[in-house]
Amino acid sequence: MAVGVTVFGRDAEPNEAERAENAGRLPPAASTVPGAAVGTGRETAATVSDAPSTAPSGPTAPPASYRLDAPLVSQLPEFYNGCEIASLAMLTRFLGLPYTKFDLVARMPVDPTEPVYDASGGIAVWGDPNRGFVGDVTGRKKGYSIYSRPLAQVLDNLYPAGARDLTGASFAEIERSIAAGRPVVVWTTASYAPTDDWTMWKTKDGIPIIATFSIHAVLVVGYDERFVYVNDPLTAQKAAKAEKSAFILAWEQLGRQALTAN
């Protein structure tokens, strides 16, 4: 992720179902996308010496296609903004853990910062989703998101083998996890396609949060050459089919966030 800038977003207003109509939009400029390069001033030139005669082999390529059967959990009606926690509930049920979405919400980290608005009605100050859920998960008030790092803490505290945060990894790593029997919670958009609808606020500590209210989290349960298959907690569709290239572009916009279990 880009140093000092956090880029993601949430289903608040309009809601995720309405944002699903925004498929096919272009991603924002590279400078606003998670993972955009930020110079540290400490870059050094690489040198090569005593190189081995045989290069080490890379990770094993995942199978061309794979599909898992994971339970479906809807975020509705109780958690209008709860796609992340409902997706985690699907993963915990798949793992055989006896926790409901209500149990997980009770354990979910929260950033209690209330939104502060500017003169034009936009959000000037709000919470940090890297610390906990921002806003109201029920939808009674404005709600936003929780990101992979604090959500991983919930799974770490419940599953003996611990969480595996795949944020920043390649999509092939997600496919390898699925082929190894572990579905993956992934942050994308409600349309499973890139968006150009972005906004920004600062946390109370002055950290800029660049966000899209099109954000959505799903449980990826399968893939093949052309499609990704997801359990969608908003539409309550099991193994819903998403066009793979567009899905990956949206996932990249949202910081390549992904979470599974060891």
From TrEMBL:
InterPro entries linked: Peptidase_C39-like
UniProt biased composition (Basic and acidic residues): 10-22
Residue spans crossing the bilayer: none
Compositional bias segments (type: Low complexity): 49-58
Classification of source organism: Bacteria, Bacillati, Bacillota, Bacilli, Bacillales
Name of the protein this chain belongs to: Peptidase C39-like domain-containing protein
Alphabetized Gene3D superfamilies for the sequence: Cysteine proteinases
Highest taxon of source: Bacteria
Residues covered by the Peptidase C39-like domain: 68-233
Segments of this protein annotated with the region Disordered: 1-63
